[in-house]
Amino acid sequence: xxxxxxxxxxxxxxxxxxxxxxxxxxxxxxxxxxxxxxxxxxxxxxxxxxxxxxxxxxxxxxxxxxxxxxxxxxxxxxxxxxxxxxxxxxxxxxxxxxxxxxxxxxxxxxxxxxxxxxxxxxxxxxxxxxxxxxxxxxxxxxxxxxxxxxxxxxxxxxxxxxxxxxxxxxxxxxxx
Length: 176
Description:
Elements: H1 2-11, H2 37-42, E1 44-48, E2 56-62, H3 67-81, E3 83-90, H4 93-109, H5 119-124, E4 131-134, H6 140-143, E5 154-156, H7 167-173
Parallel strand pairs: 2-3, 2-4, 4-5
Antiparallel strand pairs: 1-3
């Protein structure tokens, strides 16, 4: 990601912002999985596939430190409820929304052309089961992509400031 930003800003001369999110929690970053680079740069990729051979399917979208809770939920859903849940890393909800809005605009301005689909639509269109986004941010952040998620998106977030002294208590307060 950093290399892409440097290339675009300094080699190609694009005028844009790149930012890194830093958190006050230490945890080991997993290595980038093969084939994840496109999704990292476009805003969403499958972080970890759910268990095989289970009757039900679901999807959990998360980003930042809450991804560890998404992975914990993945295990609980498989072991206790027989639900295979894929965990998706959402690296840029705003990127996904911008792409979807630009795609809609293109479709509106080219009514005789074959309609295009936004990246998030193409990525998720063949997936079965409900989609749940978990966030340490307010719910409106993941809600940005809800219109383009098949079957809709249920979001859990921490829609308040100063409610708790720790991230764990804040998540508990908002049932994330």
